[in-house]
Please model this.
Amino acid sequence: MNTAADRNEAALTTQQTLAGQTVVVVGGKTGIGMGVARVARAAGAKVVVASRRVAPLVERSDLAEFAQVSLDMRDESAVQQVFEEIGALDHLVVTAAPDLGTWGSFMDADMHGVRNYLEGKFLGSWACARHAAPHLRAGGSITFLTGGMAVRPKLGFTAVTSAFAAVEALSGSLALELAPIRINTIRPGFVDTDMWGFLPPEHRDDLRKKVEDTFPARRAGKAEDIGHAALFLMTNSYVTGTVLEVSGGETLVPSVS
Ligand SMILES: NC(=O)c1ccc[n+]([C@@H]2O[C@H](COP(=O)([O-])OP(=O)(O)OC[C@H]3O[C@@H](n4cnc5c(N)ncnc54)[C@H](OP(=O)(O)O)[C@@H]3O)[C@@H](O)[C@H]2O)c1
Model:
């Protein structure tokens, strides 16, 4: 039989409010990060969005509900300073990543692009976690972001697969090392953000159509779909050390891109 204490416990573990809490989203001014920032704000959090550019509100009025911070996550001392300035926080979400870049095949002589990608995605995620952790309040969490390439390599993207796999390994390891801080990773599938802006419009439309036709969810992912998953990970106090795929079923069907 359920006691009143059980019912209170159920209410507590299922509540999806972030009222009175501070959420920092590194990468939160665009794309998936902005979806996370919007959902966290709607759940009542004070949200700080951090990335290299600080956009004037006359150009980006959609950022008015967030505090903006300038941060290059490849610069460890800047990361440390930013988290010292922000002070106490409840949840960190790191969605930022370098542009996909043009490093070419594995056998290319120049490893500059590869180093840049790993420096940004992997060591950047590492540095953010490292310097945010001392400021996290009790009950706090850290969420990283990877992508389907973590488990489904694609020709020409060895650096991305390697960086994503490394971030997922980091996530599991930190769930042990930083406990009881909870550490999780979201592995999204196709999400229709400006990250795809490098494609000519007709190619982007084709890609979206293929996703709608073939993914079991029969639609393209939205940034808020990932925000919804991040809210779950921030608010469910029993989830740690997990990789949550939010992909519309992408990995069940042949690759579309
Ligand atoms: N969209 C998809 O379909 C999809 C699917 C699976 C996985 N992913 C992965 O999800 C991540 C984000 O995707 P997205 O669609 O949100 O892309 P996005 O809109 O291009 O966002 C990337 C963000 O990272 C920030 N950033 C880049 N370098 C940074 C640095 N050194 N320090 C701090 N911030 C930095 C950028 O802001 P600034 O330029 O201001 O620094 C930007 O806000 C990527 O890892 C991507 O591979 C995306």
Residues 26-27, 29-33, 51-53, 71-74, 95-98, 120, 124, 145, 147, 188, 190-191, 193-195 surround NAP (CB under 6 Å). The mean pLDDT is 93. The domain at 17-196+222-246 is CATH 3.40.50.720 (Rossmann fold).
